[in-house]
Amino acid sequence: MKITEEIIAHPLFRDSLERNEEAEKERVFCHHDFQHCLDVARVAYCMVLEKNLPIEKDIMYATALLHDLGKWKQYESGLDHAQQGANLAGIILGDIGVEEKISLEIQDAIRTHRYAENKTSLLGAILYASDKACRPCLFCKSLKECKLFPEGREPLLQY
């Protein structure tokens, strides 16, 4: 998985994950770290395989690994992390020589990954579903305060 390996080695990817970690060190809710991104990638690729979808493993992993890179910018300035993540992904994908068409597809999936109604692509729909499926709500001590699961609503346990 050439693209995935180059993303993981890219200094902007590593820097953004470090900034996310620093910004979330006191956070009681879900974290947006490498483990979360890797979990999303694995679940997303399982979905691709189960549904026999035409998405390459490397593209699915790349999209999932990049999807929350902009979280630190959201904490810092209030900017939408999905849009900021898409921008950061565009820089990284350009630096490693990913074809523009593929880069734009990945950026679109990242830009629209937060809400079900925003999906403009299959890649985006799988990213959305896998991101939600990877929330560790079952064991969360802060679930009652979580904005994602208002009182009376069960957390997602499967996709």
UniProtKB/TrEMBL annotation:
Q: The organism sits in which domain of life? A: Bacteria
Every HD domain range: 33-136
Q: Which InterPro entries match?
A: HD/PDEase_dom (IPR003607), HD_domain (IPR006674), HDIG_dom (IPR006675)
Q: Which PROSITE patterns match?
A: HD (PS51831)
Q: Under what name is this protein listed? A: HD domain-containing protein
Q: Which organism was this protein described from?
A: Sphaerochaeta halotolerans
